[in-house]
């Protein structure tokens, strides 16, 4: 079923949703630049020159130069951001609001003194509303999840690749385990990868600790983690699909932080390197999805699993025939701090892989304490694998999965390496995830 956006039918109203945000990103960032006295002076000295320094569309520039707030909002502007621009021009909020109604400032003020604009006569036309709900069918073409990839994202693996050490005796067993994976990735190249990973105090420090972060921007560069950026390309995002996913997941009560600009660290780039090798450009688009597993409280396995179920519904309601893979990264057992540093639990790790394939619902009920006690303090990263597993179609009987590859090795630096490829085979005549 297509997403419910009937809010677009409310007359005289533009809702600032993810699509509007993407459309007006640079326009709204321009407005934010006016929060310093120096920039306000520069803007007022030469408005056109200041606007030309920003990557704005000509329609956006013209809306501002013409003082046309309605046009600015159509172009993706948000009124709270545009208020910074209005303040720079010396306009009150009431003056700005009045200019959008076709009323004089005095007439608008009198209307507000009289109790404001009445809702009567300013509601949705019921005929339009009924027409919007008349066809709840799945779009004729829609995106499909074709597989899931699960892999550790050890930073030392990336360093071994970057410094051409993959054939050394210590490292060769690790990379041999991904030879099949590289062939499979080439033969099963998706249009988009939804890649679940955790930032390692790179894009997010202790000033901001979001639980779930959806990357909605057009591009995300590789991060400098203290040793300089890895010699790998940044990723190309998919803002349209990401905006759609944001709408669907938040409507399903998952509170996401939406990020248009951030760097991506080894948690995201190492899995891409393992699957695609040394490339000048990643062969498909990537939507980054960060999960906080660094500072407690962290999301439970059950919450992550439910998010995966909601993610599948979100992807399958997107009305473009995209081939999408969902990757879960991190783990396996490892501890990087304290007297227990170096902990590895091979038996527990392999039992986790067994359950991930055969009993993901039961696996999702593991408490945090078991992850920490059995898999080490950093083994909690494995909850991210449950997002990818929750997105597959065998869980409600509407499809099947096929194990294409399984690999496990100890050690890779401080970590046990786990890797699994599951192909997703939904049945075309079966419904999507049930509400």
Folded structure, characterized:
The protein is of the alpha/beta class. The strands form 2 sheets. Strands 6-3-7-2-8-1-10-9 form an 8-stranded mixed β-sheet, sandwiched between helices. A two-stranded antiparallel sheet has the order 4-5. Helix 2 packs parallel to helix 7. It is globular. The chain has 20 helices and 10 strands. 40% of the residues lie in helices and 15% in strands.
Spell out the key features of this protein.
435 residues, alpha/beta, eight-stranded mixed β-sheet, two-stranded antiparallel ribbon, 10 strands, globular
Rg, rounded, reads 25 Å
Poorly predicted runs: none
Q: What does the largest sheet look like?
A: 8 strands, mixed
Structural class: alpha/beta
| Percentage beta strand | 5-15%
So what's the oligomer here?
A: single chain
Task: Provide the fold topology.
Layout: H1 18-23, H2 25-33, H3 37-45, H4 47-52, H5 58-65, H6 69-74, H7 79-88, H8 93-101, H9 105-113, H10 126-132, E1 144-151, H11 155-162, H12 172-176, H13 179-187, E2 192-197, E3 212-215, E4 219-220, E5 235-236, H14 239-251, E6 257-259, H15 266-276, E7 285-291, H16 301-316, E8 323-329, H17 346-358, H18 360-363, H19 368-375, H20 385-390, E9 399-412, E10 415-426
Parallel strand pairs: 1-8, 2-7, 2-8, 3-6
Antiparallel strand pairs: 1-10, 3-7, 4-5, 9-10
Helix pairs in contact: 2-7, 8-9, 11-15, 14-16
């Amino acid at each position: 079923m297509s997403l419910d956006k009937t809010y677009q039918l409310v007359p005289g109203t533009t809702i600032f949703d993810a699509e509007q945000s993407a459309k007006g990103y640079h326009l709204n960032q321009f407005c934010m630049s006016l929060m310093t006295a120096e920039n306000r002076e520069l803007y007022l000295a030469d408005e056109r020159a200041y606007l030309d320094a920003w990557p704005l569309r000509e329609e956006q520039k013209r809306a501002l130069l013409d003082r046309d707030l309605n046009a600015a909002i159509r172009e993706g502007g948000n009124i709270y951001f545009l208020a910074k621009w209005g303040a720079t021009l010396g306009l009150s909020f009431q003056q700005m609001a009045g200019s959008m109604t076709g009323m004089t400032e005095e007439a608008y003020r009198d209307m507000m003194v009289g109790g404001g604009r009445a809702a009567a006569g300013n509601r949705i036309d019921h005929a339009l509303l009924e027409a919007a709900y008349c066809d709840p069918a799945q779009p004729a073409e829609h995106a499909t999840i074709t597989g899931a990839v699960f892999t550790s994202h050890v930073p030392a693996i990336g360093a071994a690749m970057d410094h051409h050490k993959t054939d050394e005796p210590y490292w060769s067993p690790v990379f041999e385990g991904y030879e099949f994976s590289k062939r499979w990735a080439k033969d099963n190249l998706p249009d988009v990868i939804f890649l679940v990973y955790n930032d390692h105090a790179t894009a997010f420090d202790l000033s901001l600790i979001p639980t779930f972060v959806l990357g909605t921007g057009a591009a995300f560069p590789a991060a400098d983690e203290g040793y300089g950026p890895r010699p790998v390309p940044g990723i190309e995002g998919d803002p349209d699909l990401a905006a759609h996913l944001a709408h669907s997941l938040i409507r399903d009560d998952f509170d996401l932080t939406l990020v248009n600009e951030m760097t991506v660290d080894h948690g995201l780039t190492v899995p891409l390197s393992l699957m695609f090798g040394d490339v000048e450009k990643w062969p498909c688009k990537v939507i980054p999805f960060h999960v906080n597993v660094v500072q407690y409280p962290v999301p439970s396995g059950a919450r992550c699993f439910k998010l995966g179920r909601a993610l599948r519904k979100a992807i399958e309601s997107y009305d473009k025939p995209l081939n999408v893979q969902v990757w879960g990264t991190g783990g396996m057992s490892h501890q990087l701090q304290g007297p227990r540093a170096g902990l590895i639990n091979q038996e527990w790790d392999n039992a986790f892989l067994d359950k991930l394939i055969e009993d993901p619902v039961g696996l999702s009920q593991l408490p945090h304490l078991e992850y920490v006690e059995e898999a080490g303090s950093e083994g909690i990263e494995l909850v991210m694998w449950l997002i990818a597993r929750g997105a597959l179609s065998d869980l409600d009987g509407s499809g099947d999965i096929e194990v294409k590859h399984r690999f496990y090795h100890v050690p890779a630096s401080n970590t046990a390496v786990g890797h699994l490829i599951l192909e997703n085979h939904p049945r075309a005549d079966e419904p999507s995830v049930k509400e």
